[in-house]
Amino acid sequence: MPSGLRIRRLRLRGIGRDYDVSFTTPAGEVQPLSIVAGEISTGKTSVLEFVDFCLGASDHPRHPEIASRVRSALLELEIDGRVAVVERPVFGSKSEAWVHWCSMAEMAAEHAREKRQLAPAGDPRSLSTLLLAACGLAGISLKEAPTQDASGVDPLSFRDVMWVCFLENNRLDSRNLVFEANYMKALKLTQVVNVLFGIHMDALASASAQLSTRQKAHRQLEDEVASLSSFLEEQDVLGQQAIAERRAALSREVTALQDQLHETDSQMAAATGFAQTSRRRYQDAAKRAGLLAARLRDRETLLNRLLPLRGQYAEDLEKLVFLEEANSVFDPLRVIVCPACSATLTESPNVVEGGTCSLCGNDVAASGDETIDVKAELRSVQRRLRELNRYINEVEHDVDAAKADLEKAGVAEQVEQRAVDEMTHSTLSPFITQRDRTLADIATCREKLGELDRASNLRKALAAKASALSGISEELRELEKHIAKLKESAPDRDYVAGELSECFDTLLGEFRFPKLHDAGLDDKYIPHVRGLLYSKLGSSGAFTLVSLAWFLAILETSASLGAAHPGFLMMDSPQKNLTHREGQPGDEFTSSAIVTAVYAHLMKWADGPGRRFQLIVVDNEPPTAAENRVVKRYSLNPNRPPYGLIDDEIGTQPT
Q1: How many CB atoms lie within 10 A of CB 251?
Q2: Where are the beta strands (DSSP E) in 304-434?
Q3: Rounded to an integer, what distance in angstroms lies between the CA atom of residue 500 and that of residue 494?
């Protein structure tokens, strides 16, 4: 059977730093019993909740210090003996997880990884299927109505199995330990326990179906390996060692060619030093051509601005000529009738000597009406137009001269350039040929390096497929052994139930359960103590001991019978209701002797039959005898680090 799961390390990846809790010994082995201790509100429970989250739970702790500091949760596991890291984003996507097939210390290096979806649980690519396969439980279906042959079925999910692997604080003293208040959930829990012990009615069929599925995957992968191997042989692809050697040789060749290219460039620079004078003349000619081009652009720009101005002056001149002609043709003041008596005037009104109007007698100069001297304005415009035309002619002459000069300068530049080319061509030709050859050789080497990279990737793909094929082959052998074992001796339900009841009774006795008698589990695995249903006991301390014994009975009986239990159990606050609190009444269950007995059993079992399994306990103050099992202790005191799970957030921590 597969070896199940073991929890090695939890890491909360933050913005500036990480927060770790390790469950291994200094030698790197998983500790059979790990205790996370400390004051309340330090984040102890959050450790277990984040472990559960990395194993597929739908939510995680959402305390303010976690929201501000943590970005992802990583859980290092042993999955059927292989070390892997399950990574899930915090406050992000809840539909997928990444599985890195390496340890946390190796994640920075190149490693294999795969994306696993969380739903549906029965999908072969889901995280649930991966975890169940490590326990030998993948591919099992649970009937919705076990007594009906035509009942619908649901695939077993690892979340269902966690019901017997995680004793949460609120379930520790619950009257609903086996989900009695929810019929469908209680039915599924009973089926889960049956599946763990191999007494599920279609366990053999499920194992056979799983074998068929893995055989199909094995054949498909075998064909892929054969096809890829054949292709590599046909294409005469080198092996990884030969690729590495060839790559090293090509890299050295590229380095030598680059050195040679640098040397050629240096020789070219030295060989053309004699042409400096000719090169300077060429540069001077090019500079002069540039200056003449700039002057030509300047003169052309000025000319383009003057031509519209000349047109405007010509238009003004035409208007003044028209005005002058109008005054000579038309009398501007045609008054022939006296405006007072309407009698015809003998002569037209005019300005008489002295500046007086002959019609009204007013002084013309005093009236403020000045007559425009059209002739004077006309002469002025004509003079300005002549000056503008003269200036435009000068600019046009400058443009023509600049064009001629620029053309001569261009010819001179070409002459100097040809002189430089003729002077250096014979000298540079051998170097240019050598340089081109070197560049071509470098390009050829890099192309060969690319081909080697592609060949290496093909070899890596073949190695990965071969490794996966080997893993599936091992799974097939284990499944065949498992099926053979199921066929030889299917477990008897009554026998398993009897073993569970006996273990449950023994555990309560070791816990010093007061007035213990008639303790056991019924056919639905519901606990009874003192001849009563456990929920009738009436003491919270009794509920705590019953819950601890029920979970431990399933784990310890699984260990003794070789059942398909994942192999770990997490318990939150096993002293709950067993220690006396000041100001509150106690009863026969609030006893330090009971707490000591509980921890004594945990340590004894972890050091003996349970040394291949794993217990993780969260408690405020475990007994002194268990101090050497404490892997992390949170103080809630800034002066005694670590303060809490998020140890750089001084303030309220999650419980």
Answers
A1: 12
A2: 351-352, 356-357
A3: 10
Separation of alpha carbons 502 and 519, rounded Å: 8
Q: CA-CA distance, 195 to 203, in Å (whole number)?
A: 7
The answer to whether the CB of 395 falls within 8 A of the CB of 304 is: no
- Going from the C-alpha of 647 to that of each of 76, 316, 632, 641, the distances in angstroms are 21, 90, 12, 7
pLDDT at 149: 38
Contact 476, 211 (CB under 8 A): yes
Q: Could you tell me the sign of the dihedral formed by the alpha carbons of 484, 487, 489, 495, in that order?
A: positive
Residue 313's closest CA among 389, 376, 373?
Answer: 389
Does residue 205 sit in helix, strand or coil? helix
Cβ-Cβ contacts under 8 Å for 223 (sequence gap 6 or more): none
| Mean pLDDT, 10 residues at a time, the chain of 655 residues | 86 92 94 95 94 94 90 94 94 87 93 91 91 89 58 80 95 91 91 86 61 82 85 80 86 86 73 63 82 87 85 82 71 68 76 74 59 76 85 87 87 77 62 78 86 84 85 84 69 86 96 94 93 91 95 95 93 91 75 94 96 95 94 90 86 54
Q: Are strands 614-619 and 33-38 parallel, antiparallel or unpaired?
A: parallel
CA distance linking residue 127 with residue 159, whole number of Å? 10
Amino acid in the structure at residue 390: R
pLDDT for residue 369: 47
- Distance in angstroms (rounded) separating the CA atoms of residues 149 and 136: 24
Q: Minimal CA–CA distance to 497: which of 557, 568, 545?
A: 557
What confidence score (pLDDT) does residue 200 get?
65
Which domains occur in the chain, in start order? 1-144+619-655 (3.40.50), 275-442 (1.10.287)
Q: Judge whether 116 and 96 are in contact, CB under 8 Å.
A: yes
CA distances from 525 to 121, 161, 564, 566 (A): 25, 15, 17, 19
User: For residues 141 and 156, is the Cβ–Cβ distance under 8 A?
Assistant: yes
**How far apart (Å, rounded) are the C-alpha atoms in residues 633 and 610?**
24
Say what angle helices 240-271 and 374-488 make with each other, to 10 degrees.
160
Cβ-contact 254, 446 below 8 angstroms: yes
Q: Which of 599, 595, 576, 578 is nearest to 587 (CA)?
A: 578
Three-state secondary-structure class, residue 21 = strand
Q: CA dist 325 to 117, 304, 328, Å? A: 99, 33, 5
Burial letters 140-167, b for 16+ CB under 10 A, else e: bbbbeeeeeeeeeeebbbbbbbbbbbbb
Q: Which residues contact 603 (CB under 8 A, 6 or more apart)?
A: 33, 625, 626, 629
Where does 489-539 have alpha helices with state H?
493-510
Amino acid in the structure at residue 460: K
User: What is the distance between the alpha carbons of residues 599 and 602, in angstroms, rounded to a whole number?
Assistant: 5
Strand order in the sheet with 630-634: 166-167, 568-572, 614-619, 33-38, 630-634
Residues 251/452, Cβ–Cβ less than 8 Å: no
Token reading at 527: 């606990």
| Burial class of residue 551 in the structure, from the number of CB atoms within 10 Å of its CB (0-12 exposed, 13-18 middle, 19+ buried) | buried
**For the stretch 402-441, what's the b/e string if a residue is b when 16 or more beta carbons lie within 10 angstroms of its beta carbon?**
beebbeebbebbeebbeebeebbeeebeebeebbeebeeb
